Automatic annotation (TrEMBL), chains A, B:
Species in which this protein is naturally found: Arthrobacter silviterrae
Domain HTH asnC-type: 4-65
InterPro entries: AsnC-type_HTH_dom (IPR000485), Dimeric_a/b-barrel (IPR011008), Tscrpt_reg_AsnC-like (IPR019888), Tscrpt_reg_AsnC/Lrp_C (IPR019887), WH-like_DNA-bd_sf (IPR036388), WH_DNA-bd_sf (IPR036390)
The entry's keywords: DNA-binding, Transcription, Transcription regulation
Keyword DNA-binding: yes
Lineage summary: Bacteria, Bacillati, Actinomycetota, Actinomycetes, Micrococcales
Entry protein name: Lrp/AsnC family transcriptional regulator
Length: 156, 156
DNA sequence: AAGAATATTGATCATTCTGCCTTATATTGC
DNA sequence: GCAATATAAGGCAGAATGATCAATATTCTT
């Protein structure tokens, strides 16, 4: 079994519904045996279906209510060093290299507008960075969710 | 106590280190009483420090190994309807309205290049969308992390 | 269609955890 | 200094866990 099946999806959906739920409770709710749920969970973990707990921590609750996406134009030769420099900036939550143009998409959080300005400066100061373009994340049109993909897995 | 203190940060760091850890284990590891850890966790939960479990599910494990960021230029008047349309596309994980220009940043996942093409088409077909610009997320220069912000909270 | 491999179930067991309580002792804010 | 709050330490009943096992289903292969 290489790919996730409907039962896995149901278990994950149950986890989304209540993350602190016990295995026994889930088994009851899903009409599965405790053994099965436990085995599936172990299997999911082995297949790296779970990302680090970092992802569940709210930056806002930590005191960083402002999210921004910074498009960073770089000199490709210095990408390696840049990865290190960017990783040195705590407010950088993630940075992706994008296809096509020689630029990165960097997700940062900040305590406010002036803080964001300072962080942008730190990025600009990194060796290999040519210019940046900051966009504040104003409204969440679609708040993060994965459940539609899980629900789709239920049918076939 | 409005903001997160060092003890909260230590607890969260312990959670990152091992999410399935029990409260008793954490108390032992951190040199706190079980009571304290339990109370802190409850308090963190009450303050919405934890995001939904969705965030910890790996799209790759679900069969969507390709991530892309789609910049969507829109007619502002139709933002409301667009939120609904975009939410109707399962592969859209999140969508942010950006400051300044009238465009959105949409994070999508897909099973492959042709799938991404199809999804882009679905977005283009949404009422209010003028044009899109797709960027594939090639390499993760900085994989998602929040621990630097937590560790900073340990000192002062 | 038969046989093999794999999943699921139900069951047990000892150990551990939880949720909830109470009391005493810091620690902190005013 | 006093009051409010956080922490520690302990106890207790109920529940959950992890690790088994054997018996059935189910799925896959050939």
């Amino acid at each position: 079994m290489h790919t996730l099946d409907g039962t896995d999806a149901r278990i994950l959906l149950a986890m989304v519904e209540d993350p602190r739920q016990t295995v026994v409770a889930m088994a009851a709710k899903l009409g599965l045996s405790r053994n099965t749920v436990q085995a599936r969970m172990a299997s999911l973990e082995k297949r790296h279906a779970f990302l680090a707990f970092d992802h569940r921590i709210s930056p806002a609750a930590l005191g960083y209510p402002l999210t921004a996406f910074i498009s960073v134009h770089v000199q490709q030769q210095k990408l390696g060093a840049l990865a290190v420099s960017l990783a040195g900036i705590p407010e950088v939550l993630e940075a992706h290299g994008l296809s096509g143009r020689a630029d990165l998409l960097v997700r940062v959080v900040s305590t406010g507008a002036e803080d964001l300005f300072r962080i942008n400066g730190k990025i600009l100061a990194c060796d290999g960075v040519e210019r940046t373009e900051t966009s504040l994340a104003m409204n969440e049109l679609v708040p993060f969710r994965l459940t539609p993909l899980l629900e789709r897995r239920l049918r076939p």
